[in-house]
Design a protein that fits this description.
Elements (H helix, E strand, L loop, with lengths): L1 H18 L9 E3 L14 H7 L8 E7 L11 H6 L4 E8 L8 H4 L1 E3 L2 E4 L4 E5 L9 H4 L4 E5 L10 H15 L3 E4 L36 H11 L10 E4 L27 H10 L19 E4 L4 H9 L6 E8 L18 E8 L7 H15 L11 H6 L3 H8 L11 H11 L7
Parallel strand pairs: 1-9, 2-3, 2-7, 3-6, 7-8, 8-9
Antiparallel strand pairs: 4-5, 5-6, 10-12, 11-12
Length: 434
């Protein structure tokens, strides 16, 4: 058995190095070809592929790494730990996305002058969300390469794609190559849903003109942005994507043996990730979305709402793959949470969702039905966010306008079907997996 594994490892490495001789597939981006590894039962993420190469494409380079806690291989080892083991690779900068890197980051990171420093990886820490939305000039001066490895949620509200694009923007200005280690879309790559963002509603939570559930990997989105000139000023980066092997678009994230790592603090399971497609919209309303409880994005309620009344209306819609349970709860603020949940310490009435069939469950139809019904049943109490954040999240004014019209909630989903069909056709030339 040991000899078989040893032989397989050498076969994989030989194929991979042979694949480096193949040319690029796009005008401005390179996808490093990966051989047919169908003889192996495992799914190889971009990090696993690079590891099979012994990280040689990084040797002798000073690199910046855009990553968080999700960048682990099949054994659960983190990218930064794997890089640290190679004396020929110098990790100079760690670029941090929204929510940071590790749960205990404040204890681990040290302050040197005005800059954070990580004593474990001997690298400076640069946050590229909030105050700095892109790498500052000083952080780019010594870099030979920026390496990106982060698990996206597959949901447009996540800011990782926007931050990645800002990194591509800065890298294009400095002529610094960027390498993306690809990971799966956790919610399958063949399912799309929701309206495409209208330009007037673009934000960091809707940076590119894609649907809410876009069905693309981070590598594919990087290629799309780079090829289409969606980087600021129609710039193009020197982009290379190391793709996955053996991943298919019909796979959920739990198809692989890679460990589940929460991509965001409130997304603890893959079903929560799925519910986030719809329940992320509740942040544009005065409904509590389960924040402050053990069921974020799986619960909706408010002190002024009757869970029984709402559940009755929802059941009558016969929404697929989901059941509703009436609940009373009190949102609490936990010490580690930076934000205070809506209606903290107040008794809320509402509904819990129970996903009975992830393949049939429609998170957007479910969440928009809850929003539309809450607006219709409680017109005095229900409120949109004062800054009309709902339009930024939804990518369109359609939801807010529809809710005001008093139409049945199940009339809404067909309105964005045309967007989904058009985008699915448009995206085909950027897909690198079947």
């Amino acid at each position: 058995m040991i000899r078989e594994i040893h032989i397989r490892s050498h076969v994989i490495k030989a194929f991979l190095w042979l694949s480096l001789l193949v040319g690029q597939q796009f005008n401005h981006s390179i996808v490093m070809p990966v051989p047919d590894l169908s003889f192996h039962p495992s799914i190889f993420y971009g990090l696993d592929v690079l590891e099979q190469m012994d990280f040689k494409p990084l040797y002798g380079k000073t690199i910046g790494v855009f990553t968080n806690q999700t960048a682990v291989n099949r054994q659960g080892s983190h990218l930064l730990d794997l890089l640290k083991a190679h004396p020929k690779i110098d990790v100079e900068i760690i670029f941090l996305p929204q929510y940071g890197l590790f749960a205990d980051q404040n204890k681990r990171f040290k302050i040197h002058g005005n800059q954070k420093y990580d004593p474990i990886y001997k690298a400076r820490i640069v946050e590229v969300f909030g105050r700095n939305v892109k790498p500052p000039e000083w952080s780019m001066r010594e870099l030979d390469l920026i390496l990106i490895d982060i698990q996206d949620t597959g949901v447009r509200y996540s800011t990782y794609v926007a931050t990645m694009t800002k990194i591509l923007e800065v890298a294009s200005e400095w002529n610094t190559p960027v390498m993306v280690l690809d990971r799966p879309n956790p919610l399958r790559g063949d399912r799309l849903d929701g309206p495409v963002v209208r330009p007037q509603f673009q934000s960091f939570e809707g940076y590119h003109l894609v649907p809410i559930r876009h069905g693309m990997t981070l590598g594919e989105l990087a290629i799309m942005a780079n090829e289409m000139g969606w980087i600021k000023g129609l710039k193009r980066a020197n982009l290379t994507v190391i793709p996955m092997a053996n991943w298919k678009r019909s796979y959920w994230l739990d198809k692989s043996e890679h460990p589940w790592i929460s991509p965001q603090p409130k997304i603890k399971t893959i079903r929560t990730n799925l519910a986030y497609v719809g329940f992320g919209l509740l942040e544009g309303t005065n409904l509590n979305d389960g924040s402050g409880t053990n069921r974020p994005y799986m619960r909706a309620g408010a002190p002024w709402l009757s869970g029984y009344h709402l559940a009755e209306k929802l059941v009558s819609l016969n929404l697929p793959g989901v059941e509703f349970r009436v609940v009373e709860y009190v949102p609490r603020k936990k010490d580690e949470n930076k934000t205070v949940p809506m209606y903290v310490n107040k008794v809320c009435s509402g509904v819990d969702i129970v996903i009975t069939d992830p393949n049939r469950y429609d998170p957007l139809a479910t969440a928009t039905a809850i929003i539309v019904l809450a607006n219709q049943l409680y017109p005095r109490e229900f409120k949109w966010d004062e800054l009309n954040r709902i339009d930024m999240l939804f990518g369109h004014s359609q939801l807010r306008v529809f809710a005001a019209q008093g139409k049945p909630a199940n009339y809404l989903p067909p309105l964005w079907l045309k967007d989904v069909l058009k985008f699915n056709e448009f995206r085909q030339k950027f897909l690198i997996y079947q």
